[in-house]
Amino acid sequence: MEKVFRYNEIASGIATQIRSGILKAGDRLPSVRMLCKEHSIGMNTAKRVFLELEAQSLIEVKPQSGFFVNKLDYLRLPLPEASNPSLKANLNEPSELITKVYSNIGRTDLTLFSIGVPSGNLLPLAKLKKEVLYATRALTEGGTEYEPLQGNVKLRRMIAVRSLAWGGNLSEDDIITTNGGMNALSFCLMALGKPGDTVAVESPCYPGIFQLVISLGFKVLELPTHPVTGIEVDALKKVLPKINLCLLVPNFNTPMGSCMPDEHKKEVVKLLAERNIPLIEDDIYGDIYFGTQRPKCCKAFDTEGNVLLCSAFSKTLAPGYRVGWMAPGKYKDKLLRLKLVHSLSSPSIIQEAVGNFLKTGRYDVHLHQLRRTLQHNYQNYVQAIADYFPEGTKTSRPQGGLALWVEFDKGVDTIKLYDLAIKKQISVAPGRMFTLQDQFENCIRLCIGLPWSDELKFKLKQLGNLAKMIS
């Protein structure tokens, strides 16, 4: 039985009072000290109670005033439907649409709701510049020499230390660094599959994964996915005889933002291991959780080395640095041979800089602020959608990550919405980008990684008005 912590018990009681209307919007909650006195708990436990309630978007913090019950109108927006793709391999890639949307990367004249990375305003750019300078001075020959094949030792050691937070027990020798997260996924697919093999993925799924899998000559099988709990495990059971590989983003996947419960992760790992089907796990969003505890990885339940865990710092620290890594379990030797052939070495200065940023604790300080900002952004986005979007609009309820999935009524064509919005200097990601099948035409993904402002709120209002025009 899963242990129930005291802070969770108290937070659940307060959450019930808020949802039932006993505590109303604007009501002030007890202070940290008062909560300690009422429940005979310590300060740290009381603080975790409020963090948990914040993660559920039930309360807000007003500096020097205290904790207050949030306006809950936006939480009453219904959830999008669980996906129901055909359980047959498909290669109908919307390449023209993907190219059109991603060609907007770097355009400063647009509000880029379509690109799933945090704004530079949310990243510690000045500190990173200093770390790069320090790395140049610290490394032999100023960082011009090749790194060891497995990658920078300091970086691998710090990644291993951080694995304890999600139930892992990695050592630096388990880890291989790569040039970004997609490079890690590419190596794993190339090492384990061959053209004609079938890869199971979530539906909807990040377009880059589709493009990568198809470019390698593989077939894609999309799995039914719930916006809260991720893939339907029963559906995976049915297709096991049809697939050769499985590639999942269990924690806060894009675009839905779902997070698989631990029992589902454990069952998926067991099912795939029994059939010797490798699981490639992309945990690129795992550090961006809104609650008090980081979710576990599937790798935490891997006893046979069948899970190849991949991640990167592209979504949390510096997209352009291209610092990724993988823990490929029993497939490590295959991956090392492949890295030797395809890239030999990773950029030494950048890896040293990121490794040192982790070692000094600055990364954790940055993550704390980033998570808080993204959580507030999520609340602000959904409130704006509740205020300005057509009646009947549905939104996901991510507990982390960078994505918000929006579902309109069936009559709204979001490719047409994209074309109208771009004329207003607004770029969104139409739902058809995230599937190889004819579905999600009435959905969009919004990135919540932009700094909240009155201008951003106005852009969402404009987007809502455009959606009303075509609904």
TrEMBL record:
<dbReference type="InterPro" id="IPR015421">
    <property type="entry name" value="PyrdxlP-dep_Trfase_major"/>
</dbReference>
<keyword id="KW-0238">DNA-binding</keyword>
<dbReference type="InterPro" id="IPR015422">
    <property type="entry name" value="PyrdxlP-dep_Trfase_small"/>
</dbReference>
<dbReference type="Pfam" id="PF00392">
    <property type="entry name" value="GntR"/>
</dbReference>
<dbReference type="InterPro" id="IPR004839">
    <property type="entry name" value="Aminotransferase_I/II_large"/>
</dbReference>
<protein>
    <submittedName>
        <fullName>Transcriptional regulator</fullName>
    </submittedName>
</protein>
<feature type="domain" description="HTH gntR-type">
    <location>
        <begin position="4"/>
        <end position="72"/>
    </location>
</feature>
<comment type="similarity">
    <text>In the C-terminal section; belongs to the class-I pyridoxal-phosphate-dependent aminotransferase family.</text>
</comment>
<dbReference type="InterPro" id="IPR015424">
    <property type="entry name" value="PyrdxlP-dep_Trfase"/>
</dbReference>
<keyword id="KW-0663">Pyridoxal phosphate</keyword>
<keyword id="KW-0804">Transcription</keyword>
<dbReference type="InterPro" id="IPR051446">
    <property type="entry name" value="HTH_trans_reg/aminotransferase"/>
</dbReference>
<dbReference type="Pfam" id="PF00155">
    <property type="entry name" value="Aminotran_1_2"/>
</dbReference>
<dbReference type="InterPro" id="IPR000524">
    <property type="entry name" value="Tscrpt_reg_HTH_GntR"/>
</dbReference>
<keyword id="KW-0805">Transcription regulation</keyword>
<dbReference type="InterPro" id="IPR036390">
    <property type="entry name" value="WH_DNA-bd_sf"/>
</dbReference>
<dbReference type="GO" id="GO:0030170">
    <property type="term" value="F:pyridoxal phosphate binding"/>
</dbReference>
<dbReference type="InterPro" id="IPR036388">
    <property type="entry name" value="WH-like_DNA-bd_sf"/>
</dbReference>
<dbReference type="GO" id="GO:0003677">
    <property type="term" value="F:DNA binding"/>
</dbReference>
<dbReference type="GO" id="GO:0003700">
    <property type="term" value="F:DNA-binding transcription factor activity"/>
</dbReference>
